[in-house]
Amino acid sequence: MPIIQRSGLQKQKAKKLLEAYVDIVTEAMSHNEEIVLIGFGTLIPRPQTERLARNPKTGTPVMIPARTTVKFKPGKYLLDAINKPEEKK
User: Fold this and answer.
1) What are phi and psi of 58, to 5 degrees?
2) ∠7-23-21 over CA atoms, to 5°?
3) H or E segment to which residue 64 belongs
4) Mean pLDDT (whole number) for 3-19
5) Three-class SS of residue 35?
6) Neighbouring C-alpha atoms within 13 Å toward the C-beta of 53
7) For residue 68, which phi and psi values (nearest 5 degrees)?
8) Strand partners, 37
9) Closest by Cα among 51, 46, 50 to 66
10) What is the CA radius of gyration of the chain?
11) What percent of the chain has pLDDT over 90?
12) Where are the alpha helices (DSSP H) in the chain?
C-alpha cells in the first residue's frame, strides 16, 4: 500500500516527508553513522577494501577501489512478521 494511502497525507506532503527522510539517512551514512529503526532493522555502513576482480567480457584483471557499502540487519519485529507461520483456517 502506498505511503499516501497508508498515512492519509496529501501527495506533496508525503513526498516531502520521504525526501527529508532519505536526506537524513544519506547524511548520517556519509558520516559512517548507523541508522536504527527500532523493531524494523539497522542500516550499518561497512567499509570494503580494495580488491582485484576480472572483467567478465575480456578476463582482464581490474582493481576495484575501496569503498563503503551498507549492510541491513533486520529487527526482531520484522523477522517475526515475515517468518510467522500461516494461520490455519
Assistant:
1) -105, -20
2) 20
3) strand 61-64
4) 88
5) strand
6) 10
7) -110, 135
8) 41
9) 50
10) 19
11) 78
12) 3-7, 11-30, 76-83
| CA-closest candidate to residue 50, choices 42, 38, 62 | 62
pLDDT tens for each residue of 50-86? 999 999 999 999 999 999 999 999 999 999 999 987 7
Question: How many Cβ atoms from other residues are within 10 Å of residue 17's Cβ?
Answer: 13
Contact 25, 35 (CB under 8 A): yes
Q: DSSP states of 34-89 as a string?
A: -EEETTTEEEEEEEE--EEEE-TTT--EEEEPPEEEEEEEE-HHHHHHHHPPPPP-
Q: Is a pLDDT exceeding 70 seen at residue 87?
A: no
pLDDT score for 1: 57
What phi, psi does 12 have (nearest 5°)? -65, -40
